[in-house]
Design brief:
3 helices, 226 residues, Glutaredoxin, signal, four-stranded antiparallel sheet, alpha+beta
């Protein structure tokens, strides 16, 4: 799989007005990885370090499917993760899929093991302009979005804090590897069009919950986590 030294920034996202009293949400860092990719373990370790040491970062590990045909099926791989990476390939403008890839705030990408590039991208990330309210109720989830300018899709993500897996084949065959904030489910649950709105949804699969508001250009406009 293509691996490259790149930190690309796409065109600037549309500017949205911040609602009164809004606070900055976490910077969203998405790693696209696979258990069969021999270049991925250092990126998996970096993501774990970010999750442990950077409280202002929401670090998520998306396991893609296209390595599954090469001797080992990643039990965390999701077609939705591959589709999400494909959308980023288009919105970031380079059209390429590679692992390990980290995408910061939906608008910049880097080789996932390149610590300096990833930390630089986090430091340069623009704050998300939309404050999202997330509450867990007896019926499921309640997601509140404020008034603002712009629009986007609301994504609901379920993830597990940590997994350790003995790899039985592929490029990492024989190794025991650990993974942090492994995404187990991702689905769109609604749209936001700049008006105050409330969405409800059942709890997703996974130990923890994240909600992302994402613009049509891929920019993360807001994020919240349980």
């Amino acid at each position: 799989m293509l691996r490259r030294s790149l930190f690309a920034a796409a065109a600037a996202p549309a500017i949205l007005s911040r609602p009164a009293g809004a606070t900055d949400g976490p910077v969203v860092v998405e790693l696209f990885t696979s258990q069969s990719c021999s270049s991925c373990p250092p990126a998996d370790a970096l993501l774990g370090d970010l999750a442990a040491r950077q409280p202002g970062v929401l670090a998520l590990s998306f396991h893609v499917t296209y390595w599954d045909r090469l001797g080992w099926r990643d039990r965390f791989s999701l077609p939705e993760a591959t589709e999400r990476q494909q959308r980023y390939a288009r919105s970031l403008g380079h059209g390429q899929l590679y692992t390990p890839q980290i995408v910061v705030q939906g608008r910049r990408d880097a080789v996932g093991s390149d610590r300096s590039a990833v930390l630089g991208g986090i430091a340069a990330a623009a704050p998300a302009p939309v404050a999202i309210g997330l509450a867990i109720t007896d019926q499921g989830l309640r997601i509140d979005l404020p008034e603002g300018a712009g629009g986007g899709t609301v994504w609901l993500i379920g993830y597990d804090a940590r997994h350790v897996t003995r790899i039985g084949g592929g490029e990492n065959g024989g190794r025991t590897l650990s993974y942090t904030n492994v995404v187990r489910s991702i689905a769109p649950v609604g749209a936001w069009q700049g008006r105050p709105s409330r969405l409800t949804a059942p709890r997703p699969g996974g130990e923890h919950i994240a909600v992302l508001l994402q613009g049509a250009d891929g920019a993360i406009l807001g994020a919240a986590r349980s």
